[in-house]
Every structure is written in C-alpha cells, then in structure tokens.
Amino acid sequence: MVKYCPGDDGPFEDWVERCPECGRRLRAEPPPGPKAARGAPRLDGKIVYLTTISNEPLAQLSADVLRQEGIETMMRASGAGIGAWGSAASLSHDLYVVDSERERAVEILRSLDEEDEEAPDGFGFDSSL
Ligand SMILES: [Zn+2]
Predict the structure, then answer these.
(1) Longest dimension (CA), the chain
(2) 76 Cα–ligand 1 center, Å
(3) pTM for the predicted model, two decimal places
C-alpha cells in the first residue's frame, strides 16, 4: 500500500501524511500524467523497521549517518502514547530502512555506539576523570 503526491513527487509509504517535497497531503491514487506512467518508486524494495531511538535529535543523527552511507532512512515518532506531554524532541523515534540494507544499517549503528563509548571526552563531560 502506497500513497502518492498530487504534485507527482513520487509514491510514499502509506504512513506518510504529507509529501516531504512539497508538503501537500498524499492521495491513494497516483496523479495522472506522463510522469506518473514512467515514474519508478524512489525506494527500491520493502521498507522494514530498523530500531527505536530514545529521542529525536539522536534519531535524526543516526538517520543522517545512514543516509551518508547511502542507505535511505525514514523516521517517525513512536513515543506519543507514553510521553504525549513531552515535546517532539523527547519522544522516541522509530527508524525504517529498505529491507536489503537493513543488515548494513544495523552494523553502522552498532559501530556508532562503540565510538560513543570510546570517546567520552568528545562531549566535554566527566573532565575530572
Ligand atoms: Zn509533492
């Protein structure tokens, strides 16, 4: 199940509310026109759940790193049920990637965790140690 931008920016996963390109509400039907006829999905393959990250800035950072590695990454808030009183930044976020890139994405996120542990002075805390 996919949805389409009325401005023909391409198909999107059905949980996407608005087109990230132009901000218009997505429709169930593809727009008419030659571009729709030959338009291929920009995401090749099935989108699968990758991981949940405890806050938005960290989720954004992780998504950026994955994109730099050439892995198309989607992000959405997942914590609204528990922390609806908080700001969006305090909500946990789910990351989604293309199925075929999932293993590589897991490896990249794992290596990020290791780097964080090895470089505590990069963050400027615990300087007394
Ligand atoms: Zn659009």
Answers:
(1) 65
(2) 19
(3) 0.51
Buried b (16+ CB within 10 A) or exposed e, 12-36: beeeeeebeeeeeebeeebeeeeee
How many Å apart are CA 11 and CA 5, to the nearest integer? 7
CA of 69 to the centre of ligand 1 (A): 25
Three-state SS for 114? helix
Q: How far is the CA of 30 from the centre of ligand 1 (A)?
A: 12
Q: Give residue 10 CA to ligand 1 midpoint distance, Å.
A: 7
- What are the pLDDT digits (tens) for 14-64? 899 999 989 999 999 888 765 544 444 455 678 899 999 988 889 999 999
